[in-house]
Amino acid sequence: MFAAFADDRVALIDTASERTISYRGLNEEVQAIAATFAGPKSVFFLFVRNTMNSVLAYLAALEAGHAVVLLDHGLKREFALELLGIYRPEYIYLDAPEVQAPPPGYLSMSMQFYGRQRDGDEVAPHRDLMMLLSTSGSTGSPKFVRLSRENVTDNASAIVGSLRIGRADRAITNLPLHYSYGMSVLNSHLMAGASVVVSDASVLEARFWDALRKHEVTSLAGVPYTYQMLERVGFASMDLPQVRKMTQAGGKMYEGLVRRFNDLMVARGGELYVMYGQAEASPRISCVPPERFAEKIGSAGIALPGGTLAIRTPEGITTAPNVEGEVIYSGRNVMMGYAEKRSDTGLGDTYGDTLFTGDLGYLDGERFLYLVGRSKRITKLFGLRVSLDDVERMLSRLGAVAAVGSADRLHVYHEPSDVKTAEAARKQLARDLQVPVDAVAFHVLEKLPTMSNGKIDYQALDATHGDRA
Fold this sequence. Notes:
The protein is α/β, with parallel strands linked by helices.
């Protein structure tokens, strides 16, 4: 990922220790750690945080050629133990200094690494398998996306080109490393010979902004909720001339919010890149070139170099303009397939190079993609199909909102706002959807639940709303 560089330019900056590592030093450290795990290709679980140690462990596991599984260090213990039982990794990295004893069945090695002997009847990971990414990072789902080295490196290279990442760029790890978007920020910047500031602070913390200014970060990445938080902390009024690039993925951002940040970046001589992707695509699929933003407002962009987009309808697959259906993506970054147990890690490519995304959208005459919702983000109210994504868009003036459905009732969760405004919005929504007002319930939460990757945790909301009024 970064082996092409071996000079004294800065690769990583650790905000916790204020330590700086050059590309030459990074190569040396990673190779030294990787030597600890020399041997047959194995499954390597990494429970990571946004720390320098986690980054080094990740890069060393890749350098050693193992099948790397990135996981949240905060995963519930019962979920973690279940995954260990299903996948039986030979190696574990646990970025949790408070842990005094190794997990059951493992021996302590060094630097929070643990290992065990492989059982004779266990399947060895396929030679092409480089990484497994969780499809549900906070629930401990045993279902992972299987990615090859070609998948990951091809996508990182396409991202470098699409986002025009150069050696002068400097990113910061405000997105979790175990989240595919956060991983891709690290991968792409190291591939480009740029630098990355390693920080575990969120955009709501003063120390994040202190680090951003001190280390002259030039690029910020975020999901839609991140941008809502940036508005909350007054990003528009901050004096940050060095921030020249902002990137957004992880879900469709409301048009008004996109416009405001694009206008802000243009006024500052910078650029906003709106992207679309899925973990199954390693993870990026498309991007809107900043110079086309004004005329393509609302678009998720064109396919990254080497990829193609199409639309599947009941009549077949098409690239004709303005035909709505399921978004189809083809490219070398499409996953090898899924894994749900240890034996699946031994499989080769069972999926091919075409991904059926499950997202709904259409292409315009220049093959710019426009997303209109997700097939699974649909609920029924009195027999009517209602897009929950559309509901959230309609209520965007309330700020951060999340919509979920249950048995002829629509539940909208929002953070504190004016009571009269919220009630008026509830009644208007019912009228717009042509359903009784009682079918729409609004709930105020101090803060919407989010997963470790910053996305709204709809599963948590599903578990709480039931059929209450």
